[in-house]
Request: fold
Amino acid sequence: MSVNRRRALNIVLVVSLALNLLVFGGMAARMLSSPDGRPIPPNLNWVIRDLGDDTRARLQATLDQYSEETRPVRYALFQAQREVNALLIQNPLDTDAIGAAFETLRARGEEYQELSHRQTLALFAQLSPEEREEAMRFIQERSRPPRDREHSNRDDAEQAR
Reply:
């Protein structure tokens, strides 16, 4: 094999390796950056996301009020989580403080959940049966693992019943 051919082959191999590493790195970054599970939604706007303009306009004031009520409760929940996280890495480990922080975190989580459930119930009570089904399609889609999420189909609302 001539020197020029060997050099060209080496260049092609290096470029191929670089492209493969770039593609692999992109896929790895995507997998690591997309969270598994569901984040806590900041408000109930997701309920009306796919509904008609009239419905969204009719409910927007209610949702704005709910957001104002929820904001301090969410903040307290995230603060409690940060406190637990900070205590878990302290040296020496203070198990009593961590236990108390976990109790606070549970209480904040229950408070947020109770408020969220109450608001969801009040909001769904204002929707027509068709609108509730549309909202349930979103919930069903969101309940799937991120890798399995596709556009939901009408059967999801039937399964939710």
Q: What stands out?
A: Residues 41 and 74 are 10 Å apart (CA to CA).
